[in-house]
Amino acid sequence: MEAFTRLDALAVPLARANIDTDQIVPALYLQKPRSDNFGDYLFHDVRHDAHGRRRDEFVLNAPVYADARILVAGPNFGCGSSREHAVWALYDGGFRAVIAPSFGDIFFSNALKNGLLPVRLPQAVVQRMLDDLLAAPGTRMTVDLRTQTVAGPGGRVEPFHIDPFPRQCLLEGLDEIDYTLAQHAAIDAFEQGRARGAAPL
């Protein structure tokens, strides 16, 4: 998993509420192995018409956003089913941070476990960002996990909260299994102490 410290990148505005996981990655692709590039399926049915042609009006199809790594969206992003594939699609599609007023709970948890940073900011702040991004396509933003701040269009800096454990994992590029393996020496010491009858730490 790629470590996340400070991301200065193109931001794409997706000014819609209640974007569910079925929109992010349609059920048709849920049987694909994780080794597939799920970025190919990101918003597939929204980006394409019934004949497979790209919809020019969908914001992610605009050439100016081809290298976007930050997504700014409306409230309740990632609602719906619990499919982890939605996070894979965003991550494989190049995104490393999603900023929204609120998220589906399971999506939020899945994102943190897979290297995608979900940032909650107040509705008014996100709406201002969306308005600014829509007015100036190609604008860059900065998400700094070390300082827990977002620098939006116009240079306004907004703080955000993240729990310490997922923050540390993201900063170090560790998933939960990697983190557990990194504690191998401490686990061994604990087990040896138990075997000798020592009181647990």
Average pLDDT, to the nearest integer?
Answer: 91
Q: Which class of secondary structure composition applies to the elements? A: alpha/beta
Query: How far is the first residue's CA from the last residue's CA?
Result: 31 Å
Largest sheet: 7 strands, mixed
Widest sheet: strand order? Answer: 4-3-2-1-5-6-7
Helix content estimate: 25-40%
- H and E order: EHHEHEHEHEEEHHH
Unreliable stretches (pLDDT < 50, length at least 5) are none
Shape by Cα distribution: globular
Number of helices: 8
Proportion of residues in extended strands: 15-25%
What's the alpha carbon Rg, rounded to whole Å? 19 Å
Count all strands and give the number: 7
Task: Summarize the structure in words.
This protein is an alpha/beta fold. The protein has a 7-stranded mixed beta sheet. Helix 4 links the parallel strand 3 and strand 4. The longest helix has 13 residues. The mean pLDDT is 91.
Essential attributes:
8 helices; 201 residues; 16% strand; 33% helix; alpha/beta
How would you summarize what this structure contains?
This protein is of the alpha/beta class. The chain has eight helices and seven strands, in the order βααβαβαβαβββααα.
Question: What secondary-structure arrangement, pairings included, does this model have?
Answer:
Layout: E1 6-14, H1 21-24, H2 44-47, E2 70-73, H3 85-92, E3 97-100, H4 105-113, E4 117-120, H5 123-135, E5 140-144, E6 149-151, E7 157-159, H6 164-172, H7 176-182, H8 184-195
Parallel strand pairs: 1-2, 2-3, 3-4
Antiparallel strand pairs: 1-5, 5-6, 6-7
